[in-house]
Design goal:
elongated, about 45% strand, seven-stranded mixed sheet, 2 helices, three-stranded mixed sheet, 13 strands, mainly beta, about 190 residues, single chain
Length: about 190
């Protein structure tokens, strides 16, 4: 029934042809955050309260090509008395998608998580005032883009359980993609006091 309703709305229009473009997740940049204020901000000195540490994730995307597909197929004749619903002029579709995000500590984090351990479970995604588990956030990403004006995905990981071992810390962020690639970036060496 839904397909019929969309067809009915689309049949009333003289819609432009949709151009389908493709993009790839191509590189990763990470920056340290200080979340001790009202909102997370980029750290300027890499000395951050351990209860306020976070990592800003930037996954850069590049256009890889495109093709034009026709919207002309219709079971109904066009009628000028209807309101129009046209699909977007352009859609960007991914050739890969994000499978997982992992945060690895380069120094001992606590007695159970020594250097090289995965500490992802201690981080949550903070976006638009909401806290979300990393896996849930990744599952909810909409990979179809309507505008590739800004070439990337940006989100913040906030540390919810501070380290108890030492004050010097550094983290590797690994993002696994559906095509088997792993994007990797490392934070600066930090003092988390």
């Amino acid at each position: 029934m839904l397909a019929f309703m969309l067809e009915l709305l689309n049949s009333c229009c003289d819609c432009p042809v949709t151009k389908y473009m493709y993009y790839s997740n191509c590189s990763l940049t990470v920056n340290s955050l200080d979340n001790s204020g009202q909102n997370p901000v980029l750290s300027q000195n890499y000395i951050i309260p351990k209860e306020a540490f976070g990592i800003r994730i930037l996954i850069e995307q590049n256009e890889t090509g495109g093709e034009v597909k026709s919207n002309d197929f219709s079971l109904m004749q066009s009628a000028s008395a209807c309101d129009c619903y046209c699909p977007p002029d352009s859609l960007w579709l991914p050739i890969d998608s994000i499978i997982s995000v992992n945060v690895i500590t380069d120094y001992d984090f606590d007695s159970e998580h020594t250097a090289g351990a995965d500490v992802s479970k201690y981080f949550v995604v903070y976006e638009r005032g909401e806290y979300t588990a990393i896996d849930k956030y990744i599952d909810g990403l909409d990979n179809t883009l309507y505008d590739l004006e800004y070439y990337g995905i940006v989100f913040d990981l906030l540390l919810m359980t501070p380290p108890t071992a030492g004050t010097v810390h550094q983290f590797d962020v690994n993002i696994k993609l559906s095509d088997g690639r792993i994007l990797n970036a490392q934070t600066q060496t930090l003092e988390l006091y």
